[in-house]
Specification:
alpha+beta, eight-stranded mixed sheet, 13 helices, single chain, about 300 residues
Length: about 300
């Protein structure tokens, strides 16, 4: 979208600290809660696209322990073990000029970025490991991520149109976990017992503590958390009625990704887990675009988007 439109939207959104709590498989409870609003009976919900979520063991367990009056309400599945607390923030990505294709957006213009940020504990453990309060080796300045006390764990790039009330999730990504995993693969020097990494001589015990006490808790949930936060933001704050999500092959073509491709599971198994369905439909705000026209013509032939409404 155009920069002026994006900034007008951001100006209208709530300001200040936004906490976001998430535990493994929370998406199932939240999607069922949303779907239940349009289903009069449990049988209707079971027959809906979200019915398969009722078969998840964590959902069955919560239903068995609670009364039917509590099912799918605001507290359904809340405060489960392993819940993590994040902070959400907004940013922008892209540009209105001609050099837009390298930014991996489907059309020229800006994307709204929803950032899933860590708490101060991450920063304290990282500083304890590095012995450096200023430099953050897990921050890549060319990506829409924050550094500092509330560094970005993951982000989602979002495009939407307020007239058609449709949105497209362009990507979800984490640099921080990827780079921390790379650090964990390093082995200590046999002579000094320290890990030599990016100019640092790190105490292997501090590195292990950083992983065990902080980062490993996010590894299994980061993609669920940022995707669920994006859906709740788009449906709840922006007010869209339909959310599209890239499939792997088409997404790479539309965004001009020809070399280093993203993890395939983020555009295959993840949206299927969230009950997105495949469609030959194209977001209305892309149909009239002269950009990526050749790729868009192939959607009905051999490619699809995912969609949720």
């Amino acid at each position: 979208m155009k920069t002026t439109e994006l900034r007008e939207v951001i100006a209208c959104l709530p300001k200040g600290r936004t906490l976001y709590r998430y535990a493994k498989d929370d998406y199932a409870f939240r999607l069922l809660g949303r779907a239940a609003q349009s289903c009069a009976t449990l049988e209707e919900l079971r027959a809906s696209p979200y019915g398969k979520l009722l078969e998840k063991p964590v959902v069955k367990d919560c239903m068995a322990r609670g009364s039917s009056a509590q099912w799918f309400g605001p507290g359904f599945g809340a405060y489960r073990e392993g819940q993590q607390t994040y902070r959400l923030s907004l940013d922008e990505w892209g540009g209105d000029g001609q050099q837009w294709s390298w930014r991996q957006t489907t059309r020229p213009g800006k994307s709204l970025v929803l950032q899933l940020n860590l708490t101060g504990r991450h920063h304290e453990l990282m500083v304890g490991m590095l012995g450096d309060k200023e430099y953050d080796p897990f921050h890549f300045s060319c990506h829409p991520a924050r550094k500092g006390r509330n560094a970005t764990l993951a982000w989602a790039r979002l495009d939407f149109d307020l007239e058609t009330r449709e949105a497209l999730i362009e990507e979800i990504q984490t640099d921080r976990l990827r780079d921390v995993r790379a650090l964990m693969r390093e082995r200590p020097c046999k002579d000094c017992g320290r890990i030599h990494w990016h100019g640092y001589r790190l105490d292997a015990r501090q590195v292990k503590r950083f992983w065990e006490e902080e980062m490993k808790h996010h590894e299994a949930i980061w993609s669920e958390a940022i995707l669920m936060a994006s859906l709740e933001f788009l449906f709840g704050e922006i007010g869209v009625e339909k959310v599209f999500y890239h499939t792997f092959e088409l997404g790479c073509r539309l965004k001009g990704i020809t070399e280093t491709r993203p993890p395939k599971s983020l555009y295959t198994s993840l949206p299927k887990k969230f009950c997105f369905r495949e469609t030959g439909e194209i977001p209305a705000f892309l149909r009239g675009s002269r950009f990526r026209r050749r790729e868009l013509k192939k959607v009905a032939e051999d490619s699809r988007f995912f969609v949720m409404d």
